[in-house]
Amino acid sequence: MKISPLRVSVIFFSIALFVVPSFSGTSQEPPAEPDTAAEEAVSVLKDISYKQIGGADRLVVTIKVEGPFQIETFVLSAPKRLVIDFSSVSRIEAQPISQVNETGLLSIRSGQFMPTVARVAFDLEDPAPSYSISSLSDGVRVAFWRDAETRPEERPIAAPEKTLPAGTAVSGAGFKDMFLRVGPGMTLYLKPEFSVTTDRPLYGRTASVTETFRQGISPVFELGAGKRINPKFKAGLGVGYQMLWVEPALEGSLPHPSLPGTFREVAFEAEDLAPNMWVLSMEGAVPRAAEHLRSGMWTVYAWALYSLYQSDKADLSAGPVVGFSFGKLYSLEDFEVEEKAPYGAKDVTIASITFLENSFAKIDPGLLISGTLSLGEKLSAFAALRVHYVDVMVEALERRASLFRASISLGLELGL
Fold first, then answer.
1. Residue 398 burial (CB < 10 Å; 0-12/13-18/19+)?
2. CA atoms within 13 A on the CB side of 410
3. Out of 2.120.10.10, 1.20.1560.10, 2.40.160.20, 3.90.930.60, which CATH number does the structure's domain 5-21+174-415 have?
4. Exposed, middle or buried: residue 372 (CB in 10 Å: 0-12, 13-18, 19+)?
5. Does domain 42-145 have CATH number 2.60.40.3500?
6. pLDDT (tens digit, 9 = 90+) per residue, 285-327?
7. According to the model, what pLDDT value does residue 77 have?
8. CA–CA separation, 74 vs 79, rounded Å?
9. What is the reported pLDDT for 171?
10. Residue 206 pLDDT more than 60?
11. Contact in structure between 225 and 261 (CB atoms under 8 Å)
12. What is the Cα–Cα distance from 382 to 413, expressed in whole angstroms?
């Protein structure tokens, strides 16, 4: 059963309607006055300070936050760091503190890791000191001490809540932690050649003809949207378009026109075929002249990424990608030769050659590796490597052709 590429594309983007959050806020009626409540809803990292308690025995860092927030903590290595991510914090007014050099804490740094996530990183000595995190009415307190010392009392973290007036629409709520990606790239085919040998009648006998199609490096353009589920995990949808640049070649064992049992071995490259080349669609339209075999391939895909490495400015992630690709490949339909005496192999030329377009549509699984580098509060540069493996059926030949490929793209990522 054939699957319509248009129908599958509609299915993919219908799914996207359930993935992408609603753009509306909590109220269906627009506020009559300027949305000052939305401005008040922006949480701010106000201040970071530290002091020693009990001489050099213990160091306490106090982080003040204005507005509601949640935290996630984890430890990074090389160098060793304690990281606290403050979700729902869109602005930082605190000044970064450096060169603490007390109780195993080397320095403290803060930055806007994501549009709604502020990150505070503690650079630690190796071996690292012990630490505890406790809640305050307006922030978080982090205590550092060496293992031989008494562990401070911990209290559960409870982020202060801030209630907005009933019916308030929060500006940009539907775009929280979402981003857009756009960028060009190149595709390299890891199995660039596809060949098939067929028997064809010539001079009342049988000629053996091998048709070969070579895929060159081709340009690709990517557009996508994603959402950060948490600081370690993100997912999204994308669409890519790439040119299929195919170079045909023809080899054959052709019978001699007048000497029974005699065959000539001939070979023709793309430049030999171009002057007399025609392309025929599968719908049976009139053949059109073509100097090159060019077509395009669309890929609609969904992806999920898990962060393997994070710093204040950079991120390296990897994960699966599943797509649906559709486009056109070619196969040899017919050819005519022209000969002159003495009818040797070098006396044979191609008078006319026709290629048939073969449409395909196929599920296209693969792997995605992506790296980002922050350029500003909402702007990042990204580099992405997508590796796809799929073989498609060339119906006219009843053979499968491999589209095993690696696409590298460079572009910009914009937070919403």
1. exposed
2. 2
3. 2.40.160.20
4. buried
5. yes
6. 788 888 888 888 999 999 999 999 888 788 899 999 999 999 8
7. 76
8. 14
9. 38
10. yes
11. no
12. 7
